[in-house]
Amino acid sequence: MLNKDKKIEIPVQGNLGILAHGDIAIEAWRKVRGAIKEQELKKDDKKKDENE
Amino acid sequence: MSKRLAKKVLLIGWDAADWKVMYPLIQQGKMPTLAKFLSEGVHGKIKTLDPPLSPMLWTSMATGYRADKHGITGFVEPLADNSGMRPVSSTSRKVKAIWNILHQNDLKSNVVGWWPSNPVEPINGVMVSNLYQQATKGKIKDWKMPSGTVHPIELEDKLASLRVHPYEITAEHMLPFVPKLDELDGKTDRTLKGIAKILANAASIHSASTYLQRETDWDFMAVYHDAIDHFSHLCMKFHPPHRPGIPEDRYEYFNQVVNSGYMFHDMMLERSLQLADEDTTVILVSDHGFHSDHLRPRYFVKEPAAPAQEHSPYGMVCIKGPGIKKGEMMHGASVLDVTPTLLTLFGLPVGENMEGKPWLQAFEEPIKVDTIRDWEKEEGDAGRHPEVLRDDPWAAQEAMQQLIDLGYIDAPDGDIAGKINEQKQESKYYVARNLIDGGKHGQGMVLLEELVNDNPREIRYGQRLASCYLHKKQFAKCRDLIDRLKNLQLLIEEEESKLTEEELEKKNKNFMKEIELPNYIDYVEGQLFMHLNRPKKAMESFKKVEEKSPNTFDLFLNMGKVCLLRHRWEEAQEAYVKALSIDDTSSFAHHGLGLALLRAGNIEAALDEFFLSVSLNYSYPSAHYHIGEALVKMDQKEEAANAFSAAVSLSPGMTKAHRWLADLYQNELKNPEKAKFHEDFLEKNIKGEITIVSGLPRSGTSMMMQILDAAGMDMLTDKKRKPDNNNPQGYYEFEPVKRLMIDKSWLPEASGKTVKIIAQLLPFLPVSYNYKIIFMRRNMSEILISQQIMLGKKADTEAKIFPIKLNEAFEKQLKKVEDWLDAQANIEILNVNYSDVVENPDEEFDAILGFLNVEGDMGKMKKMVSKKLYRNKV
Description:
The complex is a heterodimer.
Chain A: H1 16-21, H2 23-51
Chain B: E1 8-14, H1 19-27, H2 32-40, E2 41-47, H3 54-63, H4 67-70, E3 76-78, E4 85-87, H5 98-104, E5 109-112, E6 125-128, E7 150-151, H6 156-161, H7 171-174, H8 190-215, E8 220-225, H9 227-235, H10 248-254, H11 257-275, E9 280-285, E10 289-290, E11 300-301, E12 311-312, E13 314-320, E14 328-334, H12 338-345, E15 350-351, E16 371-372, H13 393-405, H14 414-437, H15 441-454, H16 459-471, H17 475-497, H18 501-507, E17 515-516, H19 520-531, H20 535-548, H21 553-565, H22 569-582, H23 587-599, H24 603-616, H25 621-633, H26 637-650, H27 655-668, H28 672-685, E18 689-695, H29 701-710, H30 747-750, E19 754-756, E20 770-777, H31 780-790, H32 794-798, H33 804-822, E21 827-833, H34 834-839, H35 841-852, H36 858-863
Parallel strand pairs in B: 1-8, 1-9, 2-14, 5-6, 5-8, 11-17, 15-16, 18-19, 18-20, 20-21
Antiparallel strand pairs in B: 2-13, 3-4, 6-7, 9-13, 10-12
Helix pairs in contact in B: 8-9, 8-11, 9-11, 14-15, 15-16, 16-17, 16-19, 17-19, 19-20, 20-21, 21-22, 21-23, 22-23, 23-24, 23-25, 24-25, 25-26, 26-27, 27-28
């Protein structure tokens, strides 16, 4: 039987391996980095507003 | 019913994947999963269809039909209310896809991202449409899925949550693609943004597919990835080696994008295979390739969908699983074969009206393939859209237009109506090309005539129509159309020269920046010249095309043919080598190269090419025949006989191979029984024997005709050309002979008779007759002087002005004819010297009568020879 539940590393900043592993890894990564990404997006939006 | 060969089948589509990029990566260990896949299965190239447009191709793959039958005819279609355009949809597909047939047979399918699959169909299983991964502008939390994206609806929320938005792509994801990422501005650099979007889309599709692989039961799963195609369109121009015109700094930043895209797919493949059971049959396939080397186009033709010119005609395919051979290659696969192969794997019959065939060569054991007349005729629930939803969008648009014309509804504004009409014409054009690609030139011609009629200034439509006329042998129509298009081209150029830069840019706003006027017309004209036996002019046209389209396989095949016709063996070799650089699996190109080498006397190299040709396509009689010819030259008579026998078994009517076999068995291999078999065949099948008097004009051919007439031979002459001072006893000509190159219908009349044919026309004789040729030889200076006098240039001859160039030209022509005669097994030849006949007729007449196997009255024959007429003796 092939290893369907192969463990992979989930760094906060993400990597290609996570995307290539598919659904499980992506969900796990989102749990790890979720808040950080939202903050970045907020920052981006704020910058855009300032520029406009 | 056939045996089911596969428990489960996983079909993975990689749009535009090409071995030319993958082989080096495999060798460098950068695609380890694919490398393992190849060792465990069978792989090869897959031939695309024309035009190589993805929605049409992936639908052909999923149905087994071309666009005229499956109904997906481009990228977009009109909205039902005629108010605008939308991406092509699944409701426009006119036939069942493989998942519908499987549904009908109680099998479960998961289909992810197939193009086009929106709105999803209610199949037994799960369908995630091709609009699933498309991110919309705005915040991630506002990212909604379009309606009709997921079936069954219960999975909608879960699958929506698995999508990856481009905003989620981080520097760490991007670094393998762009190592110097920190030197670029991710917010403004369009290429960087493009990479992030493609990566996010691929991750979304993969995420949905891994989820469905893990969480659902299925018999068949199809997953379509467009990322390789998109990475390639975005960054193939930066792929090594660096090309002139590509900015150095951009090249430095982005030269690893394409390779990294492929490596990312290898990583995704690893996960998909991990999740598949070991007894799953896996097929990995692309719809076309993508030029990655010197064949990358320098220009795009000025037409919509121009980027498709970057596509190469061969994609990739590999298959592994129970009962599939391991580590082997397969040849001759087509996009149309995918559905027949899937049906065969599931033990279901293949539609007799499907154009493709199952890949039987991939199986370890012989496979029995059942057929069914037409899957469309099989009634019952197939998991399709309800009848009311299925619609031909263009027919619906016509109906809508009729209502507008009748005044029942308002017309869309001018811009929209114009765009819909433009797209309608394009779709019709794509269908016409698709029909032509399938050999249906007649049907393609009808559509193109309508298009040309409605759009007389659209050169593209006209040139494809000219090509159809050519295939239907309507040469005059073809010539007229080419002339009209060339004039039109000049007119358009003149008009454009008067436009300001701004106006020109506006006119071309839909086209690529690097544009050139189409040159396909030169290609068609070249082919027309070939048909009219004007190889030199054909070559001039082909060279023009080569300058702008150096990646056209058929062009090089045709250039090779022209060079062979002109006995330019080295140039022929060059042309075929170029063709092979585009497609090294073409049996035609290997055969052509072999022929050029053979004629140049490089017999061993020729033999190698012929063997390659038959290894790629065993059913190629000409290649076997030329193996025979090469082996005869190498004195390997028995092997040569085997090759000729193979040619005859594939093409039983190939008389020239029978002749060789009769000769070899009779004279070399001493097997009279076999010799008799082939002699009997020839006796039964050869339409007749024709005696020919040939040679250069003024070499004594008329005299020989008179001699043979006096010998009692039956002469074919219409006596239209009257005797004159140059030929006081008559010319013995037959007018239709002059048209031999285009009209051979008179040949039955010549059977059993004697006819005069000048040397230059001999290569146009068909092989269905035996010929006895009396070839008149005469000193070339005498011939030329005689010709000069006949043309009224007596003064020149008196002034001793010798036409050196003419002399060289005739010598060359004669050499060509001699080379050709050498290679003909159905021709017996007797060379007769004019001066010998005049000086020593008895001896010559003996030889002639013996050669013709007739008894002639030597006295009467001699009366035809007059020393007085030997006026230009040198």
